Amino acid sequence: MEKYKVFFQPQGESIEVFKGTTVMQAMRDIGIDFDFPCGGEKKCGKCRVRILGEIQLACFTEVHSDMAVETFSVHATHHKTLLSVAERAVEIEPHITKKYVAVKKPSLGEHQSEWKHFIDAVYESTATDHTATDRQIPILQKLPQMLRANSYQLTAVTQGSEVLDIEAADTTKLLLGMAFDIGTTTIVGYLVDLYTGRELCVVSTINPQVKFGADVITRSNYAAGQENDFKLMHDVLMKAMNQLIAEATEKSAVSSEAIYVVTVVGNTCMHHLFLGLTPQYISKAPYIPTISQAIEINAANFSIAMNKSGKILVLPNIAGFVGADTVGVLLATEMKKYADIKLMIDIGTNGEIALGSKDRLFTCSAAAGPAFEGAQISSGMRGAVGAIDHIIFGEKLEYSVIGGGRPQGLCGSGLLDGVAGLVQLGMIDKRGRFLSPEKITNPKAAVFKRNIIEHHGEKAFLLVDHPSTSHGNLICITQKDIRELQVAKGAIAAGIKILIEKYGIKTEDITEVLLAGAFGNYLNPSSACRIGLIPKELEGKIKMVGNAAGTGAKIALLSATEYKEADAIAAFVEFIELASDPNFSTIFARSTYFSC
Amino acid sequence: MEKYKVFFQPQGESIEVFKGTTVMQAMRDIGIDFDFPCGGEKKCGKCRVRILGEIQLACFTEVHSDMAVETFSVHATHHKTLLSVAERAVEIEPHITKKYVAVKKPSLGEHQSEWKHFIDAVYESTATDHTATDRQIPILQKLPQMLRANSYQLTAVTQGSEVLDIEAADTTKLLLGMAFDIGTTTIVGYLVDLYTGRELCVVSTINPQVKFGADVITRSNYAAGQENDFKLMHDVLMKAMNQLIAEATEKSAVSSEAIYVVTVVGNTCMHHLFLGLTPQYISKAPYIPTISQAIEINAANFSIAMNKSGKILVLPNIAGFVGADTVGVLLATEMKKYADIKLMIDIGTNGEIALGSKDRLFTCSAAAGPAFEGAQISSGMRGAVGAIDHIIFGEKLEYSVIGGGRPQGLCGSGLLDGVAGLVQLGMIDKRGRFLSPEKITNPKAAVFKRNIIEHHGEKAFLLVDHPSTSHGNLICITQKDIRELQVAKGAIAAGIKILIEKYGIKTEDITEVLLAGAFGNYLNPSSACRIGLIPKELEGKIKMVGNAAGTGAKIALLSATEYKEADAIAAFVEFIELASDPNFSTIFARSTYFSC
C-alpha cells in the first residue's frame, strides 16, 4: 500500500502514513498535542487545520498525497498555560540518591563511631572524607536507635559525599522531584519520579502576585514601597507553590515527603521574590540583579513543602531582565552545544532573545510591553477561554475561540493574525494606519472593506459584531490597538536586528528560529513574519519549543550534570543591553513599520 | 656577683639567680604560678616549698647554692579549677577573617549581579567559584541597601571561599573567639581576640549537669531514661555556656556579637550532650560514640550566644571514653610531632592515657573511679576550699588546706600524699592493709603509730582530730579509702603498663611524662610514683601541662591549620580497649598493689 508524507507546521515534524489515513490519525501517530473535543467522532467540527490554504477538519480529511498541514487550534488543556512539550533526551543522574545499606554491627574493642560505620557502608570505602555539620545532627540524633531497631540496615539519602538523611527500611525507589517555572502570570510545576525519570503530573496556577501588579515593573515598584511588601509577595508565592505540590502529590497519590529535590526557574524578578530578595533594584538603572549565580538551598531552611532533608536548586540568572527562565530555555534547546547559529525568542511583556552557537551566544531583553498578553488592547484579553486566538481572512472572516462558544475578546495571537491579515490585504499602510476604502486595491480585501468602522472616535476593524459575542459588545481592532502591537513587535524585531548586527552575520545564516513560551507556541508563524515580528527570511525555519523554560527546570532536576551546564551557560552567554546601543532608537522606530 | 641555678619541680623549669635572691623572687622571675597569700610580706607562713626534703618558706629562703625546689602548694585562684597554663606558640590563622572592601559601583550596560561585584572585591579575582546557599540569603537581603548606604564600602566576614556576613563600616579589628573545655564537673571558657591572639578573659563554672549525676556513666544512664532527658542536659549546658559568654564579654567590655568562632572540647559524653545527642550508647558495650569526626556548626542553627554568622567547631573524639578533650591535650602537647616517646596521663574518673611519638600513638581509657575526685572516700571532698590537698610526714604530720583555715576534708591529691606516706613509712603492706603497730619497723613511723585508730569498726589513719577540723568531726584515711585509691591507681597503672607492652618499649624509653588536667597538676609527683600510680622510673621526667584540653581548644580556635591537625591526630591515634586485653584482669589486680 502506498505511503505519503505529511508535514506539520508549526511543529516542523513529518510522518509517513498509508494512503487514506486521516490527518487526525497522522497527528495522533506523530504525537502532536491537538484538541479533538468530540474525541474524533466527527461531530464537533472543531479540529480545524489548514491544507493548501483551505480550512479542513482533521478528522474528515484523508491523506491521498504528500501534504503540508498547518495546525493552529489550541489544545483544550492549553487554554491557560503551556504545560508539556516535546523534550530532548536526558540521562538521569539525580542530585540526590538513595542507597539501602547494611551497616557493620560493632563489637567490643572497636572504637569507630556509629556514624563512621554507617558512612563506610554508604560509600563502600573507609578513605573518603565526609564533612559533618549541623545538617547531620538530626541524623545523628536518630542514628543509634534506628540502627538497633532495623537490624543495622537503613536507607541513606545522599548528595555526593554528604548524607542528608536516613530512613528505616528500603525506600530507595521512592525519590521524587519537582521542577518549577515561576512565570510573572503563571506558575507551572512538574512532579517527576527521579528514579525512573517519569513525569507523574503537571500542575499550574495563576501567580497570586498578579494582585500586586501584572508585570515585573509594577511588582518591583510595589516591592520598593512598604518595608515588607516584597516579603508578602514572597509569602504568597510560597503558598501557591505549596498548593501546587499538594495538588500534584494528591493527584499522583504520593507524599510530599518523597520530594527531595526542587528546581526553580523564573525571570529575575520572580527569582528574587522566590528567594525573599527585593526585586526593586532590578527595575532601576543599571538594572542589575542582587545575585545571578545558581543557589543551593537546604529545604530545612525554606518553607517549601517537601522532604526537609532535600535541596532546592535555583538556576542562575543572566541579567536583570534575562533570568533563570532564559537559562532554562537555553539548557533545554542546547543552543550552546551546536555549531549552527540559532535564534531563540521567548515573547512576553519582556521578550528574551538569544542568538548564537557553541562559539558565541548573545542575549538581550526587549521591552515589548503587554500587547502580546492582550493587555492595553481595546478588546484584549489573556489567552483564556473565550479569547479569539486565530483569525483567517479567507472568502470570509473566520476565527477560532479558545474553549469554543461565543468570543469574549482577543488575545495576543488573535491580534497578531488580525493585523497580519490587514497588512496582507493592504488595508493598513506601513505605518499601521487604516487606508481609506478607495485606496484599498487588493481584490481579496473587497469583502472586508465594510468591516472598517468608526469606534469611539477612531478607525477600527470589526471582527465580531455585538450579537455574536458573549457579552453583547463588539470585538474589533482599533487604530490604537495596531499602534500597541507595532510597539511590541518593533521592540522584539529591533532586538533581533541588533543581535544579528553585533554577531556580524546575515539573517539567512540563522538555521533555526526557536519560539519558546506560551505566546510563541500559539502564534501563527506566518502572521509573525507578515508583520515583521520575525524576519520574513526565517519563516520556514521556525520551530515551536514549547515551555522550554520549564523543560530546562525539569532537565536540571533530572541531571546534576545538566544543572551544572546551566551555570556554564549563564557564564558563557554575553548580555547585550539594547538601551546602551546608540542606534537603538532608530532601529526600534524603523522596526515598528510594516513592510507592505 | 655569683649566680646559682634553681630547679623547680614539678614544673621542670630552672633559672639562674644572683646569690641571696629569695626562692620567692626566683619563682616570680621564672613565672611560676604560686600563691603568696600575704603578698610575700613574710607574715602568713603559707608559701611552703620543699628543699632537700625539708619544708621551707619560699619568702624567707635565700639561694646560696644550686638547688632543687619542690613546689606543692596550690595557687588560690586554682581552688576550683585549672584555668590558665603555660602554652606553646601558635601562629594565628583564624577560621574566620574580615576584610574591608570597596565594591565596584555598576554602570549601565553591566549585567553582573551586585553579589558578583562584591565577591570580586572580596577575593580580588573574578575567577574563583564561590558557592551560594541559603546561608547567603540573609546577606543578599541586605546587600543592595547596605552598598548604597555605605558608599559601596563594606566589611566582609569570610571563611575560606564563603562569605558569612557583611557589616557596615570597617569592623576588621573586631574579631573574637571563645574556646570551651566542657568537663564533667567544670566548664572553662577562654575569650580570645582572634586578631591579636590575646586572651581577654578566662571564666569557669560548675557544669550544671552535675545535678543529673556526678560522672558520665550516671549521666548516660539518666539520658537513657525519659525521652527528653538528654535534651534537658543539653539545654542546661547551653545555658551555662551562654552565661560564661555573658560573664566573659561583660568583664572584657565587648559584645557577644563580636564572637565569630567557638571551639569545643570535652569527653565523649559531654561532646554528645553538647550536640544534643544521647550519650546512652557510649556507656554500654561496645562503648562506641555516635560520631567522632570534627563537626562544623553554623551558629545560626545553634543556641550559643554569639554572632549568628559565625561557626562552632567541635573537635573530634577518638573513642567512647577518649574524647575531644584528649584530642585537645594531644594537640596542645604535640606528642604526634616528636620522635621521642612521651606518656600523657589525664587523671580523672576516667583516666585517659596516651603513649607514643610521631611514629605511632596509642591511647586508652582507664576506669579509675571517683577516688581521685575525693568521692566515695570517708573524709573525701572535691578540691575546693577546706580540702587538705597536700600532706607531709616529717617530724610531725603537716598538711596544707585549700584557701587556708581549718580543714573540712580530704581531696584526691591529699589522699594520694597520705597513702604514699603510709607506704613510705611501712605502715601498710603491699596489699594496702594497715600493719599492726609491732610490725611497723621504720623509726620515722614511730611518731605516727598512735594515729592508727579504729574508726566505725575499721582501721584508719587519723589525719586531723575533731577539735581542729571545721566541722568538729575527725578527718582520717580508712582501710576502705586505701582500697578505693588502690582500685583507682591500679586502673591507671594497668593502662600505662598495657600501653607500654603493646608499644613494645621499656618504661625507661619514655622521655617525658605529661600530666594533664586539674588533678594531675595538683598531685605530688613523688607521691604518685611512691604508690605506683606512675612508674617509679619516670619520677624525674614528670611535667605538668596544665589544662591541656582547654589549651588545645584555644589552639584550634587560633589556627585553622591546628584545627585540621586535631582531625589528623584523631585519625592517627590507635585506640586500645583495655577490657579486651586478655591479661587486663591480672595486670590490673597486680597494679593495685604497693611495692613497699
From TrEMBL, chains A, B:
GO molecular function, one term: iron-sulfur cluster binding
SUPFAM superfamilies assigned to the protein according to its UniProt record, in alphabetical order: 2Fe-2S ferredoxin-like
Domain of life from the UniProt record: Bacteria
Domain 2Fe-2S ferredoxin-type: 4-75
InterPro entries to which the protein is assigned, alphabetical: 2Fe-2S_ferredoxin-like_sf, 2Fe-2S_ferredoxin-type, Beta-grasp_dom_sf, Corrinoid_activation_enz, Raco-like_middle, Raco-like_middle_sf, RACo_C, RACo_linker
Gene3D superfamilies listed in its UniProt record: 3.10.20.30, 3.10.20.880, Domain of unknown function (DUF4445) (3.30.420.480)
One Pfam family named in its UniProt record: Raco_middle
Signal peptide: none
PANTHER family associated with the record: IRON-SULFUR CLUSTER PROTEIN, IRON-SULFUR CLUSTER-BINDING PROTEIN-RELATED
Protein name from the UniProt record: Ferredoxin
